[in-house]
Amino acid sequence: MAAKLLTVVVSQTPSKNPAKRQLEEELVAALMIDDTVDVAVVPHLYNLDSAHSGTLFLQALQGHLVVLSWMYSRAAHWLLDRSGIKGHQVETLFDGQDEGDEDIEIPEPQGVGGVELPDRKIYCLDLGVDDDSRVYLEEIDRIGQELRADTNPTPVSLDLTDWISGSPKPEQLQRYLDPLAVLSGDVDVEPVKRRWYPVIDYERCTNCMECIDFCLFGVYGVDRMDRILVEEQDNCKKGCPACSRVCPENAIVFPQHKEPAIAGALGDVGALKIDLSRLFGSATGLDAAVAERDVELLRDGRDAVGASVGMPKRQAERDSTQRDELDDLFDGLDAMDL
Ligand code: SF4
Ligand code: SF4
């Protein structure tokens, strides 16, 4: 197979929503006749575990990637990174739109950043931005032009016969390069179940360890460089977003949460301006996190602990005068139900 400049990966919606499926089909049909890109379809990225052949396929890909998924772009990028699909995160024109008005306070990222990044670029596009496939195709075309203008292009290889793990076999990975068959269900891909776990944005994470102290369910650990790690993803309690409210840097993302700020949005969402510095690590956010954690402890048959365990030091300095304003903010986010 001739190597192309770019591989475009479509991550399927976990829902049966016909409009979402139609958008995926339109994109795949158009990309398949574009001889500058390869195109692949995998099940919803968030639901893939480390042993799934979709994950192994993505790990085997080399060269630049565009990933189209039903997630905010930073959620998709750090989810891929956690799965060993690493590269330099490149902003797209979509990200520029997400930033919204200049008067929204979005703290500059001060995090530890990614590590062991290969010389490749990853562009993540959120399929929730627009229902017109041409919007995505134009952006992919622009990215292709940008890469072609690079005077020192990264070699690209889609030769999956290089895959040396032995299991699954190369032909099991190649099936993802038959995107129409994957979309139609004609290819026998292992089933996935819905999962729920936090994704850490290392561009924002300062490694303060407040999340590991707060979570009482053994989700977090540290890697060999003593960096915080979502170690036991499936220990997380379905629907619980508590630690994301505790993180002072808004570095913990739950891509499927209904509140855009927790799902990875930055800035302006609908008519609501999200001031992240007020939402995360705030007194009201901590109250909500404590209540959410207690619910999960009780469901497990354990005792509620309230604010007596694993609370950040900021809690002692809480300013109750902020409550009315912050309560309004939470009410607004809940009411949006996006
Ligand atoms: S609380 Fe947030 S910033 Fe601190 S280690 Fe956890 S993810 Fe990183
Ligand atoms: S959401 Fe709840 S259960 Fe999951 S990691 Fe955070 S605190 Fe732990």
Task: Offer a few descriptive terms.
single chain, alpha/beta, Rossmann fold, 2 domains, five-stranded parallel β-sheet, 11 strands, 34% helix, binds iron/sulfur cluster
Question: In words, what does this structure look like?
Answer:
The protein folds into 2 domains: 6-184, 3-Layer(aba) Sandwich (Rossmann fold); 199-336, no CATH class. It has a 5-stranded parallel β-sheet with strand order 2-1-3-5-4. It is 34% helix and 12% strand. α1 (18-32) packs parallel to α5. The protein is built from 13 helices and 11 strands. With 338 residues, it is of the alpha/beta class. Bound molecules: iron/sulfur cluster (2 copies). One iron/sulfur cluster binds at residues 198, 214-215, 217, 219, 236-237, 240-243, 293, 296. One iron/sulfur cluster binds at residues 200, 205-211, 228, 247, 249, 251-252.
